[in-house]
Amino acid sequence: MTGTDLAGWLAAGLTLATFSMQSMLRLRASAIAANVCFITYGLLSGLYPVIVLHALLLPCNVLRLYQLSDGVSPSAEIRHNGSSTAEGRTSYRRMHGASRD
Question: How far apart are the first and last CA of the chain?
Answer without folding.
Answer: 55
